[in-house]
Amino acid sequence: MPIATTNDIVNFQPWAMPAEREVGHDPRSAYVENFWLSTLGPSATWIIRRLADHLDAEPDGFTLDLNDLAQSLGLSNAKGADSPFGRALQRCSMFNLIRPTRGGYDVKRRIPDLTTRQLERMHDRLRRNHDEWVQRTWTTDPVQIEHQLVAAGVDRRTAVIAAASAFRPTSSLPNQ
What we know:
- Mean pLDDT is 85; it is low at 169-176.
- This protein folds into two domains: 9-107, no CATH class; 124-165, no CATH class.
- The chain has helices at 30-40, 42-57, 66-72, 84-94, 116-120, 124-137, 142-151, 156-165, and strands at 9-14, 62-65, 98-101, 104-107.
- The protein is α+β, with helices and mostly antiparallel strands.
- Helices cover 48% and strands 10% of the residues.
- Strands 2-1-4-3 form a four-stranded mixed beta sheet.
């Protein structure tokens, strides 16, 4: 389905996901601002943040005039999908943060960590900042590790086993 165009009144609803896959970052978080911004772009980042605000107010979904949203962000929607707003909305879809549906769009409530490919394309300084952030927020909590593995597509049984054994010594050598 193409991205909606001028004068479209569009329905947005939360992207239904299993609870164990609802991991990641709030679209208004410092992680998204600091690390996704350079990948997603400022206009698309603002769009996904505004959609999150709307979903907070109306968790089951809402209807929105795309022209009103575009104007509230200082963007033109005069040429529809070819406008600055239309291109920013397309970036949200391209990065799998929204997806077109028959009646509008599904919107992710949580933004995933950047992929390795996205990190490789990032400016060196920003990538180092990301690495430092990962080190500061690293977890050894097996439940969190399990949730992260499931969110990455690992089946639950394998994730449980991997998380439980992640920090267990594997050496059979006696302690010295």
